[in-house]
Design brief:
Elements: H1 3-8, H2 20-45, E1 50-51, H3 53-60, H4 64-76, E2 80-88, E3 94-100, H5 104-110
Helix pairs in contact: 2-4, 3-4
């Protein structure tokens, strides 16, 4: 990965080679900011305290893999945190329920 590309992640999709990988990253980056803001808005302003990636993808009618990637990036920038809660997804697997940093205080109040 070139040094200029390293500076972009996690704020833009990255790539390792300048062929199909770059084309895919460029395509994602056209949608990237909007999807990132939509996901953050669900966590920040949604009725629930926590959401799983599956729940967010369903609400937004978006590809689960794209949503998971944005959630990972939001976690790396400390916007989302692991709530400690786990829920079963459609495949009956435990998945993380994420919480927005602005709701952490509310979560602590509920559990104390």
């Amino acid at each position: 990965m070139d040094s200029q590309n390293k500076l972009r992640y996690p704020y833009q999709a990255g790539y390792k080679k300048r062929s199909t990988s770059k084309e895919a990253a460029d395509k994602i980056n056209m949608k990237y900011p909007r999807l990132m803001f939509m996901i953050e808005d669900i966590y920040k302003f949604g009725d629930n305290l926590t959401y799983t990636a599956d729940e967010v993808a369903e609400q937004l009618n978006q590809n689960l893999i794209s949503v998971r990637a944005r959630i990972t990036e939001l976690n790396q920038t400390a916007v989302l945190r692991d709530s400690g809660e786990r829920r079963k997804n459609k495949n009956n697997r435990n998945v993380i329920a994420w919480i927005h940093r602005d709701k952490l205080k509310k979560q602590k109040e509920l559990f104390t």
